[in-house]
Specification:
Elements lengths: L3 E5 L9 H10 L6 E3 L8 H16 L6 E5 L2 E3 L13 H9 L6 E5 L7 H18 L6 E8 L14 E16 L6 H6 L12 E3 L6 E4 L4 E17 L14 H9 L19 E2 L5 H11 L7 H14 L14 E2 L2 E2 L7 E6 L2 E6 L2 E6 L2 H12 L3 E2 H6 L5 H13 L3 E4 L10 E5 L1
Parallel strand pairs: 11-14, 17-19
Antiparallel strand pairs: 1-18, 1-19, 2-9, 3-4, 3-5, 5-6, 6-10, 7-8, 7-9, 7-10, 12-13, 14-15, 15-16
Length: 432
């Protein structure tokens, strides 16, 4: 019997909690702090701590910053204090860094989805219902981790340009929030760490298991913990950029980051609106289409539109996050080997090429009838045999092999005999 690989599709999966998300968008989104219930299970402490260890390795190597430790309220980025392989748990790390005096410590990490496929998959599954309603955040998204034995966030009362969802992983944590009109900047600075006089005007959010706390961009806030606590924040850049990513929220900024071209008109400095990926994409988004037309006169490379389209699709299938490396899907985590998952997939034609993107990574292959037919069948849930492509004269082995390698690398497929699906979502199969 021929081997096959399954490609899991979730674009048409039934949406859980649709009414709750409708109410949330109507009553609270970008406006008021709120608690959401019936959220997907939060990742375990083992998964989150493994991500912190990976982030520590990256930060220690100087590849990127984004991991900070506070001891007694003093900020430090000493690598010796980062989570190490010898730390058997988050509590063990906290005891080691606190020392005999049990000094209060706080760990703050940003962009951890870039080192953890498990956290990225959880985040996109959690917020996909929101993205369906409001679109992807034009200024990006990221997952942050806050943890330690501190009583209140070492940053004091502060505000950010991002909308935030907080999920408690371990311990008990609350978020104290003030609306912009309730607290002035002068008050926030004066009482940043001693805010007892401001408590009566605040809104205290204490998410339980299966719940998430939400506060909009521009709201003053400070986290409060009881004992050792660990939490995940998902920051969404609908108003401004996230801390660990370059500002790429407008068509002009997007084109500069993707192609290095700067000659875009100022009228393109509006938020770039992108929807969820769904198989075949018609081409460049309206804002990018206008920018591409304005820039083409000054561009000599025939691959310009191809490059920009590839960046657009990658941003859509990464769901506005900076995704983990593709090969990470083949690495074993704390719970064993990575499992195949329903990752976003999108493709679009441009000239003589087809750009295929999955989970924020892409490949470019020939725009032939066979390639397009296979992608269309794959998207519809039908099995596609690689052998048929090999017999087609106008389809290079390298074209379809590149697509297969991409899907394998991002963990979207499962090698072996297809198993019956219990999900109502259609599944795509690719037989070899």
């Amino acid at each position: 019997m021929a081997k096959s690989i399954r490609i899991i599709v979730d674009a048409n999966a039934p949406e859980e909690g649709a009414q709750q998300w409708d109410r949330f968008v109507r009553d609270s989104w970008r406006n008021d702090a709120a608690l959401l219930d019936n959220c997907p299970p939060t990742p375990t402490q083992a998964v989150v701590f493994e991500a912190l260890k990976r982030a520590s390795v990256v930060a220690s190597a100087g590849a990127r910053r984004g991991l900070t430790i506070f001891r007694n309220g003093v900020r430090t980025e000493a690598p010796a204090l980062y989570p190490q392989g010898s730390d058997i748990s988050f509590e063990a790390w906290c005891r080691r860094v606190s020392g005999r005096s049990a000094s209060p410590v706080m760990l703050m990490a940003s962009g951890v989805q870039a080192v953890s496929r498990e956290l990225w998959l959880w985040a996109i599954a959690t917020l996909k219902p929101l993205f369906r309603r409001v679109g992807l955040p034009p200024y990006g998204a990221e997952i942050g981790v806050f943890g330690g034995n501190y009583e209140s966030t070492s940053l004091g009362i502060h505000t950010d340009a991002v909308d935030v969802f907080m999920f408690v992983v371990t311990g008990a944590k609350s978020m104290r929030v003030w609306a912009p009109g309730v607290l002035t900047q002068t008050q926030a600075r004066k009482h940043a760490f001693d805010y007892s006089r401001l408590r009566s005007s605040s809104h205290l959010l204490t998410p339980a298991v299966g719940e998430a706390a939400y506060w909009p961009a521009g709201h003053w806030h400070i986290g409060e913990s009881r004992g050792v606590a660990l939490s995940l924040n998902i920051a969404l850049g609908y108003s401004g950029g996230i801390p660990s990513a370059p500002l790429v929220g407008t068509p002009r900024q997007f084109l500069f980051m993707s192609s290095g071209r700067t000659a875009a008109p100022e009228c393109l400095d509006v938020p770039l609106s992108l929807g969820l990926p769904g198989g075949r994409v018609s081409g460049l988004a309206p804002g990018l289409l206008e920018a591409e037309a304005a820039l083409r006169r000054a561009v000599t490379s025939s691959r310009f539109a191809e490059i920009v389209l590839e960046e657009q699709l990658n941003r859509q299938t990464a769901m506005a996050f900076r995704p983990p490396p593709p090969k990470q899907s083949n690495q074993a985590g704390p719970g064993g080997g990575a499992q195949p998952a329903a990752v976003p997939l999108a493709w679009s034609r441009t000239g003589a090429k087809v750009v295929v993107s999955a989970a924020g990574h892409s490949c470019v292959v020939s725009n032939s009838r066979s390639v397009v037919a296979k992608l269309a069948r794959l998207e519809s849930g039908q099995p596609v045999r690689l052998a048929a492509g090999r017999r087609a004269r106008h389809l290079s082995d390298d074209d379809w092999a590149s697509v297969c390698r991409l899907l394998l690398d991002v963990g979207a497929v499962d090698k072996g005999r297809p198993r019956p699906s219990r999900s109502r979502a259609p599944r795509r199969r690719l037989s070899t």
